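SAMPLE LOG
Freezer: B-3
Tube label: C17
Construct: single chain, 142 aa
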Amino acid sequence: MTWVAFWVVVALGAGILEVAVPAFGFVFVTLAALAAAVLALAGTAVAAQIVVFAAATLFFLLVLRRFFVHRLRGPGVPSRTEALQGKLAEVTEAIDPVRGSGRVIVEGHDWAARAAVAVAPGARVRIEGADGIVLLVSPVPH
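STRUCTURE (predicted):
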């Protein structure tokens, strides 16, 4: 087997691993192996191919991976409750801070709610956050 073929096999193997293992690292081994294959095709010494492969792999993993992971990572999927923060709701079932019970209607949807103080039905509250699917609310002054 020639060195060009060896590096191509390494690149293919790393490419297959990148697809099979969600680590986002084997793609850089693939690129480094392809760089070494180009050097082998140009007739560069085997020692130089190995050094370039190792250096390129380290560079790609330590520098490029961090850059691409940061660029590809989005804000994520917002929870249903995140979109409700700051909105006003109407209390439909009294909010009792001792029992941790109460319900509100916000944008036409019924939610469980908690507050630090008791809130009577019909009162307006502002959504401050959420604890899972329970809205954390505070009374709105009239």
